[in-house]
Amino acid sequence: MYTYVKVKSPATLANFGPGYDVFGIALEKPYDIVELEITDGKSTIKNVNYDLPTAIERNVASYAAMQIFDRFSKGINFKMTVTKGVRPASGMGSSGASSVGGALCAEKVLGRDSDEEVIMAAAQGEWISSGHAHADNVAPCYLGGFTSIVSLKPFNIFKIMPDGLKVVAVLPDVRVSTKEARKILPRSVPMEDAVHNVSMSSYVIYSLMRGEYSNLRVALEDKLSIPYRKKLLPGYEDAKRAAMENGAVAFSLGGSGPTVFAIVEDDGINVARSIKDAFMEKGIDSKDYITKVGSGAEILSLE
Amino acid sequence: MYTYVKVKSPATLANFGPGYDVFGIALEKPYDIVELEITDGKSTIKNVNYDLPTAIERNVASYAAMQIFDRFSKGINFKMTVTKGVRPASGMGSSGASSVGGALCAEKVLGRDSDEEVIMAAAQGEWISSGHAHADNVAPCYLGGFTSIVSLKPFNIFKIMPDGLKVVAVLPDVRVSTKEARKILPRSVPMEDAVHNVSMSSYVIYSLMRGEYSNLRVALEDKLSIPYRKKLLPGYEDAKRAAMENGAVAFSLGGSGPTVFAIVEDDGINVARSIKDAFMEKGIDSKDYITKVGSGAEILSLE
Q: A156 and chain B: CB distance < 8 Å anywhere?
């Protein structure tokens, strides 16, 4: 048993093209820093950079940590600080990063080491923010690389490490609520669209396992969620066209948006600028992250 | 330019669980033998073992061959013989085997060597039998192993060779028309079923590429076609239960059926018998093939 732990938990892009609710990829940046200290006093949660819930049962990071404590060491009190690097409601897995950070802090401070325990607790944390316990952000955030959910019960997630995959993520200064973005999706979809995504998601796996990243130009094309969700994001098609014209390999939406991302083979500078310019033409400011696939959550300190 | 060619083209199992219209796998047996001889007389087609069309524009094998001749060497006449080893309307890619056999004979007799030409001509041959030009049988029949269709135009198919994968296929003595089996499918499907198949088809690719065949127990579970099509095949669920209780790794339907198949790790004898027994309890006789993934079409003679 330890008394202090500090972890880093990165942004993620869920869905990764055709893998709605299934695929996700970890980025190197941005990331959250979560610290937990065991205390004799009352449990508290402090948020840095964004105004987020300060009740421990309503904050995703502390809620996720409590899933671990309640299961393995009931009655522990803690002081938690979440320094947000990932903007909330960004489509970059902000709540997932905080959930993983919280759950991982609890797991480590107890001296435990189970992937399943951390991911399942963090998936519960996601429930707080989206009304839906899901792991398509928390799995890559924790494990790193690219992940695909086979099932949560039983726990079955596989990981591929697409070494060196270069990603440009651009976060426009608009808000898309995950709940709203789920509501806009139809309950049923044309069979041919389902077949399309079966084919493309299979091609994603094949291409990532073989390191054939240029295939993603075709493989990332989605028909299950983006055709509906892109309506929530003015400028999506313009940004895609601009990115592809400037040498992007592929372009898609991060989770439910508004973050968009491109896969690139060059330094990504032109692609990032062209996407930002496209949003600016709609009067939308944006922030770009020229980054790579990341190795997942990391323990920075454990005392 | 040659004057005589003889090829062997194997049975295939399309869909392979969650990959409706996308996946397919080649078997070692059964197979068709297709022979073609250039002639000065009129083109003819002869079928051995089954009563199939004898008009060259209506027989899948000769029609597929004509796609190649019409494109590259118009006016050639041929005598073709198709010795059927794959029962028509079996769900084992019977028309696909004949189409590939016909197209490959034409390609080879002309001294040509293009995967795309053979597969596209054979896919056209499929149109004759099913009213739908598709490649989920002809691609594995020609290329061998496991194949996944990304798109036909542009031509983009990938192959995985799951070495040593053992398959028990059982063909019940009932008929299922491919056209009927397509009609029974709904035009739209629940989003959650589409997401399920995206997840499972991804897991199929991952598992085959890593040689983790035991994963197929989970990964072959389909929600897009089998839940509808199994109604056309009395005894499907009984046969599945019997196979799994007797040690099968996974169980599914070949194409639109009636062939069912199991993945096995042992010699497959008990699994084959248990499936046959299950059908027999419904009063249905059946034939079993204890076989393996195959290496695709083969040229037996070229003169």
A: yes
Q: Chain A: nearest CA to B250, how far in angstroms?
A: 16
Of A20, A186, A201, the CB nearest to B201: A201
Same domain, B249 and B197: yes
Q: Counting beta carbons within 10 angstroms of the beta carbon of residue A74, is it exposed (0 to 12), middle (13 to 18) or buried (19 or more)?
A: exposed
CB-based contact (8 Å) between B191 and chain A? yes
Range of the domain at B204: 166-292
Comparing alpha-carbon positions, the chain B residue that sits nearest to A222 is: B198
Identify the pLDDT of residue A175. 82
Structure tokens at A197: 């995504």
Tell me the two tokens of residue B128.
């004759």
Contact A278, A242 (CB under 8 A): yes
> What pTM was computed for the model?
0.97
Average model confidence (pLDDT) across chain B: 96
Cα–Cα distance for residue pair B166/B271, rounded to 1 Å: 12
Q: Quick one: A219 and A84 in the same domain? A: no
> For residue A182, what pLDDT is reported?
80
Omega within 30 of 0 (cis) for the link into B227: no
CB B140 within 8 A of CB B25: yes
Model confidence at B111: pLDDT above 80:
yes
Indicate if A20 and A140 belong to the same structural domain: yes
pLDDT digits over A36-48, tens only? 999 999 999 999 9
The identity of residue A222, as a single letter, is: D
Which segments in chain A show pLDDT lower than 50?
Answer: none
Residue A116 among the catalytic residues: no
| Tens of pLDDT, residues B43-63 | 999 999 999 999 999 999 999
Catalytic residue chosen out of the listed positions A147, A178, A259, A291: A178
pLDDT of residue A216: 98
How do strand A166-172 and strand A260-264 relate by DSSP bridges? antiparallel
Q: Which residues of B touch A136 (CB under 8 A)?
A: none
Question: Any chain B CB within 8 A of the CB of A22?
Answer: yes
Instruction: Note whether A286 and A298 are same-domain residues.
Output: no
Q: Give the model's pLDDT for residue A68.
A: 97
- Look up the CATH number of the domain holding residue A129: 3.30.230.10
Nearest chain A residue (CA) to B20: A195
User: Which ipTM score applies to this complex?
Assistant: 0.96
A19 CB neighbours in chain B (<8 A) are: 198-199, 202
- What pLDDT was estimated at residue B57? 94
